[in-house]
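*** Fold description ***
***
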Amino acid sequence: MDITIYQGHYPPANPDGITVVIDVIRAFTTTHFAFTRGVTQILPVETAEQAFAMREQYPRALLAGEIDALPIDGFDFGNSPWEVDNADIAGRTLIMRTTNGMKATLNARPCAGLFVTGLISAQATAQAIMARNPDHVLLVASHPTGDEDMACAEYLSLLLGGPGISRDQARTRTCQARSAVKFLEGRNPRLRAADIEMAARCDATGFAMEVTGEAPITIQAVPLPQGKESSPAVL
């Protein structure tokens, strides 16, 4: 399996391989906890205006996201795993706008398969990829300068059998990343340290998050394949 790491919002085409978009702080940590709370699907959009327009098509949908890390006026949630994990959202659709993860996801095709992940679901993502045994995997650290996404990419590379770093190293780099500082300082009540604590977790979860569809594209939780042969080591 050939593994390539790319950083930024505009991944190269990967028509014959699997692409994974990574956003640890916080988009794909938030989506993970949204699915654990019972959200049925997540629809990525690039702008707040697109989110409001899409809600006309999905009147029961909830809006989540951020601009410059802060909640968006008129949205139901910020881009916060803590918020969605403490909300009654079962059975709902989430329309989501974020600065890095959602934008890179919208730009990630063409590819033969597309997953999204944070650190918390890296093990599950590796297991889902290994079950498909692609020739090439493109790991996209969506934050153009963020070390937390690069750390997750390097950990995921290791799980897939390539060079990389350990889980503990990835967790340490997440907590020490520049993007984490404003949450951990506690100066802004809308930026919670709990979000970083959740983003730095790396759990054995029962699902990965796959992107399907066209207009709109949809993030869905997909159950993991069964069998030891598809399970990566936890390192």
User: Anything to note?
Assistant: Residues 2-211 form a domain with the putative 2-phosphosulfolactate phosphatase fold (CATH 3.90.1560.10).
